[in-house]
Specification:
about 0% strand, about 80 residues, mainly alpha
């Protein structure tokens, strides 16, 4: 706001105070966010597959609960290396 007023050559205190009244989160809001996270995760192939911590941020979950498990490397799987 201050920057916008400064570009209009306004000097002094900002004449407007912005106050946000947050509404409580509804179940529908959580469901919509979960649907978005699932779509972005895409069965481990989407954009959130490599950044699972972002999914936790989006859902508002504590990152302490995030357990990062290493993905299996195909080169170490003897069944896939057999011809």
């Amino acid at each position: 706001m201050e920057l916008a007023l400064k570009t209009q050559s306004f000097q002094g205190e900002v004449p407007v105070k912005v106050k946000q009244v947050w509404k409580p989160i509804r179940t529908a809001d959580v469901n919509e966010m979960a649907t978005s996270v699932v779509a972005l995760y895409g069965n481990g192939l989407g954009i959130l597959a490599e950044h699972e911590d972002l999914a936790f941020d989006m859902m508002g979950w504590p990152k302490e609960k995030l357990q990062v498990t290493p993905r299996p490397d195909n080169s170490t799987n003897p069944k896939q290396n057999q011809n």
